[in-house]
Every structure is written in C-alpha cells, then in structure tokens.
Specification:
By secondary structure, this protein is α+β, with helices and mostly antiparallel strands. About 65% of the residues lie in helices and about 15% in strands. A 3-stranded mixed beta sheet has the order 1-2-3.
C-alpha cells in the first residue's frame, strides 16, 4: 500500500517537473507539490500508525512472556519442594500414590496391575492386553517423586483370538 502511495507521489512530482520544464505556471506547480506533500504526509501517518500498533503488540507479548516465565519459575519451585519432600516418602506412601495413579488412568483401572514397594523400588506385576498399557503403567510409577526405580514384571497377553491366547514380553 505504501509503495503505491510513493509511486503516486512520484508521478505527481514528475508531472510538476514536466510542467516546470514546459513553462507551466507557478500556481500549477504549487498545486502539484501540495498534492504530493499531502500524499506523503498520509503515507507517513499510516506508516507511523503501523509502527505504533506493532510496538504495542510487542509490549503486550513481552508482558505475557514475563508473566509466563514467572509462572514457570513458581511451578518449578513448587515441584522442587514437593520432590524434596517426596524423597523422604515412606514405602506405604509411595504404594498408595502408585495405586491411586494407576487407578486414575481410565485404561489401566480395567486391568489387573499390582504394586509393591520396598526401599523406594516399585515392583509392578499383572497382565495387560498391550505393550502400550504396560509402558504407560511403568511410566506412571516412574514419574512419582520418591520412586527410586521400577521393576517391571507386567506380562502382555493380547486378547484371545480364534487361535487362542499368546503371551508376549
């Protein structure tokens, strides 16, 4: 849009120069220069408006970024504090957390997975119909603060087909 205005202003300027070279009246020259000046002022005003809008958007984005960074720092501090507290969690507390998180998963609540905890080591056992569910259960247990490691004893037994069940590890 601005290029068009500059081009139009240049054409008016060229016409004024042509009028001057051909001996046109000073009034015609003044009118041409005034028109060009008005067009250029409009182009400058539009460009300034665009710059002002982009500056406002930048300031708003910087403010939003700053707020998001503050939220991230707060969440990281809370997480560190909880992980520090969980480092001293008893096996009983870890057992309850593992069981609760496994039962909170809508797909895992339908399968039989047992958990046992000894010295922060979680042992998972049971049978699931897919590798994905086995891996999800291990991931859930591993993600609990205070869990030192997970021993996976879950067996995968796909759904029974017409040929009978087959076991996979």
């Amino acid at each position: 849009m601005m290029n068009f205005k500059w081009s139009l202003g240049s054409n008016v300027f060229a016409a004024a120069l042509l009028a001057l070279a051909c001996g046109g009246s000073e009034e015609a020259q003044l009118a041409a220069f005034s028109e060009q000046l008005a067009e250029l002022h409009t182009a400058v005003d539009e460009a300034q408006t665009s710059v002002d809008e982009k500056e406002a958007a930048r300031r708003s984005a910087e403010s939003e970024l700053s707020a998001a960074q503050a939220q991230l720092r707060d969440a990281q501090r809370e997480l560190a504090a909880i992980e520090e507290q969980a480092g001293g969690a008893t096996d009983t507390v870890l057992f309850r957390l593992v069981q609760r998180r496994l039962l909170d998963d809508s797909d895992l609540e339908k399968v039989g997975i047992s958990a046992a905890v000894d010295a922060g080591v979680v042992e998972l056992s049971g049978i699931v119909p897919s590798l994905e569910l086995r891996d999800r259960a291990v991931g859930i247990a591993s993600g609990i603060p205070g869990v030192a490691s997970v021993e996976n004893r879950i067996r995968v037994l796909p759904a029974v087909s017409s040929e009978g069940p087959s076991e996979t590890d």
